[in-house]
Design goal:
18 strands; single chain; elongated; disordered C terminus; alpha+beta; three-stranded antiparallel β-sheet; four-stranded antiparallel β-sheet
Amino acid sequence: MELQGLTLDQSDPLYVLITQTPDINSNTTGSTARSALVNKVKGATPGRHTELFSSGKLFKDLFFPNYSPVSYEADVVSNTSLDDNWWSSVSIAVLCQSMYYQTSDLRSQLVIDNINSAMDAFNVTLREKAVKWYTHVLLKDYMKYAGDIQSAKNGYIDQICTSKWVTYKMKQYNYGTWLNPSWEEFHHWIKLSALGASDDEINTIIEKLKNLGLRIFPDVDAGAWHHYFVWYSPSSIDHNDIDKDAARGELEDVYMPSVYGTGSYMNEENSFEFTASDQPGEQYRSVPSSSCFSSRTKVLMANGMLTEIEQIKVGDHVASPHGPRSVMFVSTPNRNGRTLFSINNYAGFWFTATHPFINAQHSSSKQPYYLAHSPLQLDHAVPTLGSKGIGCLGVHTRLVHSNGEMEVLSIQAQQADGEEELLYDLILEPDCTGLFEYFVGDEKMQFLVASEIPSFSTATVTEKVACAIILNMIKASLKPIESMKSSMLSQQFNHKIQMIAFQISAGLLCNAAQYSTPAVSHTERFKYACMNFAEYLKDAAAMFLSQDGKYNAAAGEAFAHLSASRLFYQISSILDLGFRKPALMPAKKDWMGLSVLSIHTHSTSISDMC
């Protein structure tokens, strides 16, 4: 009987070692090897949730509550030469990738191109190490057939490097009975590697077998077999490996307790926390950029003069379609490498891709009110602008200017030159129009634009009062915040500011609700709802003070942004519905958005806003 070209008895363990190969269709060894790698990624999840008064849960426990080590996982680091920090980096990237595909509120802030690039690089590195890892697992499974390792290796080589064995294999090939030859040859090299043969030894054996007449298939030839990944399927680790396990933690609405009483809930809070500043995933998240102009952009003032926007001060009066308007905030964010745009070659007039211009054709029911170079980004930054329509600012669109309207004939782009610079936007005092519009441009032409703030022109009385409350609340908090702003990084605040926003929401608004009933007039509601706002804000800001008196977690602009984003509908509900508890309100997807970065303010009378 021809025993597969070998001079061994079928009962010989070496015979079994040579002839036994994992099933290509149900490779339990490959599945075990890959499962250990995926589980290593889960177990390497770094960091823990931030809590106000205690040490928070490990992110590993939040996203993978059922995690436990699996077979061979403890051997991964030593057999791949990839340390725990490397595996933690993979865990961060794949979790952020999973969050991108599973979250809704956070998704627009995740930089998916960077995430995918990182995962591609991680998988390239892992595939370079994967064959060594598979060899280790295969050795564990086949060790019982090896006996003495050195003797088994020498015997293996002696048995296959013979004309008899080569003749047998080529006869199989010619008759079409050699099934999956690349798979079998690859596993010969892997088993030899597991028995201690070096890559050079294996390549030498491959060349010897070719000289004996064996057909070696290109994908497992000398120098190529390390890149044969049929055993490793799928051949990349990505979000699909963790989505099911991580979904609950990523999407969970987390209860935020309040020192004032009833707490509140935050959508996707664990995901926001994981990608917050100073947390593992911060590098893959970008808060929506503000809409602004270059420093030399001219602003049409109420007296008809033109002033460069960088010279505008709080309290200055600018021209608007409805008369003079006082400047409440001056936003001065960094450019941060963003491309700026201009239209019709107007000199010195550059704007960001998300700044809203007024569409001269908006009176048509089919035309949007606003135009922006990147309308989707603007809709993400200030969601409520979309209710009036946001179109693409392109060639042949028409814009309102100070003396009529004009067609856009060309659009110019200006790439950042590496030098950091400030950009500018103006936030105007609210008035009865509910609009925040002013004119900007160059010496020859000034176009009508909107501040990056929701339009209230179609708002109900309750909504206007709620907006006035929010704006006054922001203004009341700015003076102490500005005095501490110089020590902060631009995005260092997000996770803690969200926590404090919900602290205010739960404590402040529940308190305000006690003074509000549906029968009370809007004026009285406004009076009661405003009660103790400044005091609550001071208490909230105090939570972010470090021992040296610096505001170490948030910049004032982000506090304003998140407060406005989360509080508007809760305030409106209190005004309209009396003793309704904000914590029990259903989740809203169309929160009011207010993105104000470096800001300056002055005091104003609340009654003037009404």
